[in-house]
From TrEMBL:
Gene Ontology CC annotations of this record: plasma membrane
Taxonomic lineage of the native organism: Eukaryota, Metazoa, Chordata, Craniata, Vertebrata
MF annotations from Gene Ontology: calcium-dependent phospholipid binding; metal ion binding
CDD domains: C2A_Copine, C2B_Copine, vWA_copine_like
Designated gene of the protein: Cpne8
Protein name: CPNE8 protein
């Protein structure tokens, strides 16, 4: 049997999530029972798989033989080629415990949208002057029999035979993915004062609607009050479905599964305003016992993104320092001291290069962002086929000197497969950063607006945990800065019309074929 545990972010406590079925008498079990979990790109979900040899009916695991375990993150499985991760089972010293293969797939029922169009005929006349101004209201039914509104059409003025515009709605919103659940549609006559008159209603379901335009999808609009009062009442008109098209929305994971790599670059602010690294008041203070703000932000974001980058090699840059031997100021230098190859191995390699360069460079200024943005943009411009996407993390103490050039760089970069995360450390005013973020007003330069919003800014101080629990505050920081990345990624792919590559074929164990001689 295999037992899956998940880990709480705060106290690191492992909780049992579920168990597979028990497969008797085999050393190569292929478990059928699946675990359905919520996936968030921006969160690090630690997983532990424990394997036991079951000897009795007892649910108590200590009564069975432990065969080993495997640790990974959900992102690691999803980010592996074809979302298939193969890892050795460990946990019994000096013993080879075998390997485990874990695959992940996104549940697709939630991803379809439908494009529908309706018209109506001979609706009841509700207005004293002129005809009715009809619109439709759609409701999905809930488990408890209540209804939740999920769509309103526009109003078509002064007609009893309206044709509404086609509209798109997710299947989740329309029926919660349940094809047989009741969908109630109400027809109203719009009134300027908001007291819209009820014309009538009908019910249907996703399954009925999916038959498309046919005699099944012409609905009588019934007003129950009128039906009760008038013997001769037939209906208050009819509503007809004109078209029904299903569109499957591609998701972020479809691209990851198809092999798109996320390249992570980090740029660190080495300007003098950070304070002397040997002083405890400095934002770059090299405290032997705990990470400084730069280290924390770097680790929080990097440890999540690294799961989506197969070679785990990350370029790490610095800006605003004087470099040895001649003291020239650079706004784009390699932290590892090798301009030809600024790549560091893993997040730990980046941290090491960061500490090393603090010892060798002199903090200086000014604070220029444009050079590092342009550095990453040059790489992003060379792969526009959707096989790679670039994320630049800039960590800074704030006051930016080259605002006009930075805006220009961001507007140009918004056409490229890249996103920029800015984490502001220290007590400065970050008004300029809020402007770059572009959530309120889309950023522009010389009259040109950014094609898409690619910058996400957060002040580090909002995440300092008063109780000193850095683990929790870093998880929250990562969640907020990374939450926008999947949508920014998808907006690039959509605008460019790039479809996900097909995933590699699923793994099938080799079958031993008997060779026969002819």
């Amino acid at each position: 049997v295999c037992v899956l545990y998940t880990q709480a972010i705060g106290n690191k406590e492992w909780r049992e999530f579920g168990r597979t079925e028990v497969i008797d008498n085999t050393l190569n079990p292929d478990f059928v029972r699946k675990f359905i979990m919520d996936y968030f790109f921006e969160e690090r979900e630690n997983l532990r798989f424990d394997f036991y040899d079951v000897d009795s009916k007892s649910p108590n695991l200590s009564k069975h033989d432990f065969l080993g375990q495997m640790f990974c993150t959900l992102g690691e499985i999803v980010g592996s080629q074809g979302s298939r991760l193969e890892k050795p089972i460990v946990g019994i010293p000096g013993k080879k415990c075998g390997t485990v293969i874990v695959t992940a797939e996104e549940l697709s029922c939630c991803r379809d949208s439908v494009l529908m169009q309706f018209c109506a005929n001979k609706l009841d006349k509700k207005d004293f002057f002129g005809k009715s101004d009809p619109f439709l209201v759609f409701h999905r039914s809930n488990e408890d029999g209540s209804f939740t509104i999920c769509h309103k059409t526009e109003v078509v003025k002064n007609t009893l035979n309206p044709v509404w515009q086609a509209f798109k709605i997710s299947v989740r919103a329309l029926c919660n993915g349940d094809y047989d659940r009741t969908i109630k549609v109400e027809v109203y006559d719009w009134d300027r004062d908001g007291s819209h008159d009820f014309i009538g209603e009908f019910t249907t379901s996703y399954r009925e609607l999916s038959r498309g335009q046919s005699q099944f999808n012409v609905y009588e609009v019934i007003n129950p009050k009128k039906k009760g009062k008038k013997k001769k009442y037939i209906n208050s008109g009819t509503v007809t479905l004109l078209s029904f098209l299903i569109e499957t929305e591609v998701s972020f994971l479809d691209y990851i599964k198809g092999g798109t790599q996320i390249n992570f670059t980090v740029a660190i602010d080495f300007t003098a305003s950070n304070g002397n690294p040997s002083q405890p008041t400095s934002l770059h203070y090299m405290n032997p016992y705990q990470l400084n703000a730069y280290g924390m932000a770097l680790k929080a974001v990097g440890e999540i993104i690294q799961d989506y980058d197969s070679d785990k090699m990350f370029p790490a840059l610095g800006f605003g320092a004087r470099l040895p031997p001649d003291g020239r100021v650079s706004h784009e230098f390699a932290l590892n001291g090798n301009p030809q190859n600024p790549y560091c191995h893993g997040i730990d390699g980046v941290m090491e290069a960061y500490y090393r360069s603090l010892k060798s460079v002199q903090l200086y200024g000014p604070t220029n962002f444009a050079p590092v943005i342009n550095h990453v943009a040059r790489y992003a411009a060379s792969v526009k086929d959707g096989s790679q996407y670039f994320v630049l993390l800039i960590i800074t103490d704030g006051v930016i000197s080259d605002m006009a050039q930075t805006k220009e760089s961001i507007v140009n970069a918004s056409k490229l497969p890249m996103s920029i995360i800015i984490v502001g450390v220290g007590p400065a005013e970050f008004d300029a950063m809020e402007e770059l973020d572009g959530d309120v007003v889309r950023i522009s330069s010389r009259g040109k607006f950014a094609e898409r919003d690619i910058v996400q800014f957060v002040p580090f101080r909002d995440y300092i945990d008063r109780s000193g629990n850095h683990v929790l505050s870093m998880a929250r920081l990562a969640k907020d800065v990374l939450a926008e990345i999947p949508d920014q990624f998808l907006s690039y792919m959509r605008v460019r019309g790039i479809k996900p590559s097909p995933a590699p074929p699923p793994y099938t164990p080799p079958i031993h074929v008997l060779q026969t001689q002819i």
